[in-house]
Specification:
By secondary structure, the chain is an alpha+beta fold. Helices cover 22% and strands 26% of the residues. The two termini are 29 Å apart.
Length: 249
Amino acid sequence: MSAPQLGTLDWQLAAHHAELLARPVATAVTATGVECFVAAIDPSLADTAAFCAAYEVPAENSANCVVVAGRRGEATTMAACLVLASDRADVNRTVRKHLDVRKISFAPMEDAVSQTQMEYGGITPVGLPAGWPILVDVAVAASAWVVIGSGIRGSKILIPGAAIATLPRAETLPRTLRPGPPASAPPEASRPLGSVTNAAQRAHTALRMPENAQLAHGFPGAEVRSGNSGHHRSKLTIATIPTPTITMR
C-alpha cells in the first residue's frame, strides 16, 4: 500500500516505525496486520485543533478517541468512542444506552492513561485493553482515510476508516453523534459528564446566598452582580451561569 497524501506530513508504514508508536499500539499493529501509516509531529501540537491547523489536515479527516466510564451498580464498563473531529459524540444518550449503563462520564485522565498505557492526548483505538468496546461512528468508518492517535503525543496514525471498524471489539454505530463546532473551537467544558450535567441544570440560575456566588467563579463566562433583595436586612447576590457545551477532543 502506497502512502496517501494528507496534510503536510510524511506518512510512513507504521509496521516499520515502532519507535513512533506506544508499546501496546505497536503490538496491536503487528498482531492484527492492520495496514496504517504513521508520521512524527511536534508533541505540543498533538491536540486536535492545533494539529489540524499546523499540518493542514481537515477536521473531517481527523478523529477523536474519547474514553468513557459507564456504571451500573458496582460494575464499571470502560469503552472508547471514535468520532470525527468536526462532530461531538452523543455520550449521555446514544453511548450510555448502547453500553446499557445508568451513568456515564469521561474517564479520569489517570485511569485512561494507566489502563491504556498510552499518553493522554494520544490515546487511540488501536491496542486498547482487551474487553473494551470500541464504538466507531459510521461517519468514521465511511472515511477513506482518517487521522487518529498513535498512543504517544509525538506522532499520528493515518488509517482507512473501514480498517478501524474491523479492529477487535469494534462496533459501528449509526449516527452516535450530533453536529458540533469544528475542532478549532475551544472546549467550554472539560469536567466529567456528570459535573457538566449538574452545571447545565443550574444554568441561568440566580444564586441568592452571597457565599454561593463563589461557586460561579468556577464556570467560564459566569457573571456575578449584587442588588437589593427587597428585604431591609439582606442584600441579593446573583450569579448567572451559562449553559456549558461538551466538546470532544
